Amino acid sequence: MTSGRELPHPEAAQIRLAEVLHALADPMRMRAVRRLAAAGGAELACSDIELPVTKSTSTHHFRVLRESGVIRQTYRGTAKLNALRGDDLEALFPGLLAAVLAAADAQSARLGAAED
């Protein structure tokens, strides 16, 4: 049963590398992706992913991630839950997400938490 509030997501075959890379290039979106990756596949509400931006800007960042195919968003009651589309991304671009996350971790260690 759907809530009537379905969000559009690209089918796996529609996901394009340029759009994924664009989505991952933004520091706030990368922060959200790192938090989702750390959750180990669990769905997290937007409020569980703290971004130091306004709510409208946060909404924009999550929309870019969803429309590029990086995350899947679903409504559960009034909460919008987010999960990485890791399997889809791995099938389309083997090793990309793992490499980007490892590079982000290395950068964070090199520059300190202020760059997170």
TrEMBL record:
Domain HTH arsR-type: 9-104
Superkingdom of origin organism: Bacteria
Classification via SUPFAM superfamilies: Winged helix' DNA-binding domain
Keyword field contains Repeat: no
Keyword Transcription: yes
PROSITE patterns tied to this protein: HTH_ARSR_2
Keyword vocabulary terms for this entry: DNA-binding, Transcription, Transcription regulation
One Pfam entry name: HTH_20
GO molecular-function terms, A-Z: DNA binding; DNA-binding transcription factor activity
Protein name stated in the entry: Transcriptional regulator
